[in-house]
Amino acid sequence: MILVKPETIENYVKKGWWSEQTLGDLLLHWSERRASELAVVDPPNKFEISGCHAEQWTWGELLSQVGRYVAILQAQGLRKDDILVMQLPNSVEQHAIYLACAISGIVVSPVPVQYRTHELAHVMDLTQAKLAITTQHVGNFKAAQLWADHAHQFSSLKTILSLGEHLPDGVTPLSPLLLQTPSWDAAQLSAHMKANGVTAHDVLTVCWTSGTEAKSKGVPRNHNEWLIAGYSVSQAGELKEGAHLLIPFPFVNMAGVSSSLAAWILIGGTLHHHHPFDLTIFIDQLRAFPMDYSVAPPAVLNLLLKEPEKMAGVNFSRLKRIGSGGGPLSEWMMTEMKNKFDIEVVNYFGSNEGAALSSSPLDMPDSAQRALYFPRMGVPQFTWKMDVAQKILTRLVDIDTQEDIVEKGRLGELRFKGPTIFSGYFKSPSLTEKAFDEQGFYRTGDLFEIAGDKGQYYRFAGRHKDIVIRGGMNISSEEIESLLMSHPAVRDVAVIGLPDAIMGERVCAVVVQQTPEILTLQHLIDHLRSVREVAAFKWPESLVLVDELPRNPVGKVLKRELRERYANAVIPARAPKEAAH
């Protein structure tokens, strides 16, 4: 299934941005070169999560498992360009399934374990998948039972395979099949790829957008699109051959797949799985293995700095880079991670569609600056060390006038074009048409501004729909969240706009407390005014304290839910002093 236009493929290959190497080719390479080296490791609590025992495979053992899955998929009647849906927690089996599909030319559509019938029905209707692979349970969620109960609603579905025991009727146990099925060896797998005409331009996955604002959209990505993303991760993280990676992001979208699959297979590394996120287990894994790289959401890194004693016993001799993103990164967090743990945090901005920027020590040595800015990649007058900067084009566009923005300090939508960007939403031509502008640039929906003394940086200002518009002034929620995170009593925070008859919207801070002492709105205002010296119109005008913030399957705060929940929250009759103007 090749969705990219032939002339585009020819252009990217000619420039050396894409190649003819597939993920299957890389598996065969590393299974020969590093056969006895560890390739993939399950989460230590896998049995508690899914009832399946934790395993770890060398590259040679991984090849054998992939060979079995290829044989099983063939026996189930799947052929090149067929689609299977996979709903599994992070595990070694996911690697085997992804790579078996890469070799067979089958498209794998991974879905979050949080998806239920409503979301799965949408996925199945769009993909017309013939096969589903799941597990007996994920925590209290009886995944195999749900698939069995609703299989009749999925007209294309022929078979449900599941890990685990005591499975419901209509579900085929996967474990006995794996034991009974002879594995295809490297020569057979290579011949299978050639016979099926699998290329690096074939779609490998259809992942799903997070759906915070709308129904999830399918995002197809081919081998080359994944590998170019993986190379960016490995370069920003300065990863060497055989590096140990601890990746807690769900193995179902850009953040997870680019690290756990693409970057990992490019360096022949060892991937340590983790999921769902558990801070104690995450730190235990850091203690148990000499990790070279990890990723974590900003909230987790903030927590580790608030409670540094949790990191006691961790060997930091090799862990010099941690990737983060998907939310605001504060200058305080970036600086303290360097000062306390000698760890440089790489600030990532990205989407399933392939729009991506990375602020790494390669291009921005100053850690505090890295929290605020991204290199202005894709603009001819600036040169950066990250290779992807020379392969993409970016433009900043005024949302109202559609003019290109070239001056500093003016908010606009950042748009991308190039070999990292997807070809269009799966079977959704109308959505695809809306996603690209008249020049062929992908519309991210994300607001940035040009910054730096030479206009060499982009500063992220939030989603277009995540701006509080107060009295005609645009206020970036992410900016205020980042500032409030440096308050010692704040563990987590989301800033939203609440409707107001006079000002249009007023700023509301929804806060999870770090300390038991009473936190008041005035405390936050004093911090922004006296400590951070923030403009008065940006100060929060109401405060809501919660035990935790609602998040979607990939960890993003559900701002829409918060706005609906607190739409009628009481705002003080008088706004905080100075903030009313």
Brief synopsis:
With 581 residues, this protein is of the alpha/beta class. The chain has 3 domains: 28-40 and 49-198, Rossmann fold, CATH 3.40.50; 274-465, Rossmann fold (3-Layer(aba) Sandwich); 466-565, 2-Layer Sandwich (GMP Synthetase, Chain A, domain 3), CATH 3.30.300.
Provide key terms for this protein.
single chain; Rossmann fold; 5-stranded parallel sheet; 581 residues; alpha/beta; 25 strands; 19 helices; GMP Synthetase, Chain A, domain 3; 8-stranded mixed sheet
What does this structure look like?
There is one protein chain. With 581 residues, this protein is of the alpha/beta class. It folds into 3 domains: 28-40 and 49-198, Rossmann fold (3-Layer(aba) Sandwich), CATH 3.40.50.980; 274-465, Rossmann fold; 466-565, GMP Synthetase, Chain A, domain 3 (2-Layer Sandwich), CATH 3.30.300.30. Helices cover 33% and strands 22% of the residues. It contains 19 helices and 25 strands. An 8-stranded mixed β-sheet has the order 2-1-11-10-12-13-14-15, with helices on both faces. Helix 11 (254-267) links the parallel strand 10 and strand 11. Helix 2 (23-33) packs across helix 4. The longest helix has 17 residues, at 59-75. Mean pLDDT is 91; it is low at 573-581.
Taking all Cα atoms into account, the compactness measure Rg is 24 Å
Question: What's the multimeric state?
Answer: single chain
- Mind telling me the CATH class of the largest domain? Alpha Beta
Overall structural domain count = 3
CATH superfamily name of the largest domain? ANL, N-terminal domain
Strands ordered across the widest β-sheet: 2-1-11-10-12-13-14-15
CATH architecture of the largest domain: 3-Layer(aba) Sandwich
Q: Indicate the percent of residues in helices.
A: 25-40%
Alpha-carbon distance between the two ends:
57 Å
Structural class: alpha/beta
User: Total helix count?
Assistant: 19
- Mean pLDDT score: 91
Strand content: 15-25%
Contiguous uncertain segments of 5+ residues: 573-581
| Strand tally | 25
Task: Assign an overall shape.
Answer: globular
User: Do you know the CATH topology of the largest domain?
Assistant: Rossmann fold
Tell me about the biggest sheet? 8 strands, mixed
